[in-house]
Amino acid sequence: MLSDIEIALSAKMEPITKIAEKIGISPEELEPYGHYKAKLSPVLWQRIKNNKNGKLVLVTAINPTPAGEGKTTISVGLAQALCKKGKNAIAALREPSLGPVMGIKGGAAGGGYAQVVPMEDINLHFTGDMHAITAANNLLSAMLDNHMQQGNALGIDPRRIVFKRVLDMNDRALRNVVVGLGGAMNGVPREDGFMITVASEVMAILCLSEDPEDMKARLGRIVVAYTYDKKPVTAADLGAAGAMALLLKDAIKPNLVQSLENTPCILHGGPFANIAHGCNSIIATRHALKLGDICVTEAGFGADLGAEKFLDIKCRMAGLSPDAVVLVATLRALHYHQSADKFANLGKHIENLRAFGLPVVVAINRFADDTDEEIAELTAYCREKGAACAPADVFARGGEGGGELADVLLSVLENEKANFAPLYPDEMKLTEKIETVARTIYGADGVDFAPAAAKKLADFEEAGYGRFPVCMAKTQYSLSDNPKLLGRPEGFRITVREARVSAGAGFVVALTGEIMTMPGLPKVPAAEKMDIDADGVITGLF
């Protein structure tokens, strides 16, 4: 069997201008990065912004195993299958982060015969978006430390700095560092730390911004620190927002690529699905909706994290209304979560998505050792729960292997009407929003707030952030905040140990459990198997 990289390198890609032409984009509306990838020019949006929207389909998943459920693979394969059915389908996906690629994941652009290409470029430096976000984030950090070095006119308390530096690589040694050592000329000594780039608020801002002006305004609202009298200090206070927006002037433009079957794909952004909202950019999704009949997009981790944030944060801010949800499940994960009811985890996610007023299609991401009997049993269960269901073998067969799933989805889009509504209103208090998510989505008996978290949430209400949606940070492996509670746990409570405001992104983060914002490399990093020869042939990128 060929590896992902071998499949990708043997693909017959079309020039990006031809891919653009398929969806009505002229060469003048592209900014090419080589032959096979391009940025979409702002002049394109001015032309298409009044077009009618296509259908919006969200791809999410049950709580995954550590290997994941294959959301990106299903998203790409489904878009390919829809195009085979004569639909003008466009995939709107997230960009991979270098850290996981070099760490545990290897390639992260789909898999098998359902990939986006050029896979090696996408997984490495692509069009430089991640590096621009890293630079903008770290410029703000540098200006913050420089302000304190040059007299600290704002009275910033070095013990109350809440903004961290970032790096797009897994590096546990940088989680906690001390900066400013070496004497008076080297800055004010203080504790600091690094997060991975996708966890930066700058990434969340880029993905939630309407346009460059909105992005600059949001960057200015980032709270970086507090003064000695506990007043917030923002990026605008430091005079950093304009320069940060300048560094992001190209990164805010969405990227156009293609699948192995030459299906158009718009890749843009990729916020961490724990500490942020885990979806691609609003700008990318809107382009796909205006250019295609069907936009297939995805949200990170399981539906209790990514889908809930897509629906309660991204859709709320962008005015989006999904037409259907594809819920990816594998028999492997259902065995992993098995309890008295082996489909209990899946059942809870179906109930949750239907609570948002959305039709649900369960996509069984099929593996070679799955039996027909198990597939039939799972299909019958989904129907009992009021969800359509179809197996998908897109990893091995590409768009052809997603034909049945595409047919089922098209039938749902035609015959079932979505009645989407977010889970809670803007005016609900922050603590009540957290309680609503915990009880309704996770199935918790309630929420316990640590005193410090309760105090911060009250302070955020007083500071005018009470209308923000909440962004729940918790483990992806369980519906609870305990990764060991698999299946559909009952009789548990959620503990909110800390709260943070992402004032620029426009949400309040409630942290539960231990959330790692700078991953480490595994015992055997994927990078050990990667290489490039004298002819430029890449191996080991999965």
Short description:
The protein is of the alpha/beta class and 542 residues long. Helices cover 35% and strands 20% of the residues.
The number of distinct β-strands equals 25
Low-confidence stretches: none
Q: Which percent range describes the beta-strand content?
A: 15-25%
Largest sheet: number of strands, sense, barrel closure: 12 strands, mixed
Please state the CA-atom Rg, rounded to the nearest Å.
23 Å
The oligomerization state is: single chain
List the keywords.
542 residues, alpha/beta, 25 strands
Describe what this molecule looks like in 3D:
It is a single chain. The protein has 542 residues and is an alpha/beta fold. It has 19 helices and 25 strands. The mean pLDDT is 95.
Secondary structure blueprint with pairings:
Elements: H1 4-9, H2 16-22, E1 30-32, E2 38-40, H3 42-48, E3 55-61, H4 71-84, E4 89-93, H5 98-105, E5 110-111, E6 114-117, H6 119-123, H7 129-149, E7 156-161, E8 165-167, E9 177-179, E10 190-192, E11 194-196, H8 201-208, H9 212-220, E12 223-227, E13 232-234, H10 241-247, E14 255-259, E15 264-267, H11 282-291, E16 294-298, H12 303-318, E17 324-329, H13 331-336, H14 344-355, E18 360-365, H15 372-384, E19 388-392, H16 394-397, H17 403-415, H18 430-442, E20 447-449, H19 451-462, E21 470-473, E22 494-502, E23 507-512, E24 531-532, E25 538-539
Parallel strand pairs: 3-16, 3-17, 4-15, 4-16, 8-11, 17-18, 18-19, 20-22, 21-23
Antiparallel strand pairs: 1-2, 2-14, 5-6, 6-14, 7-12, 9-10, 12-13, 14-15, 22-23, 24-25
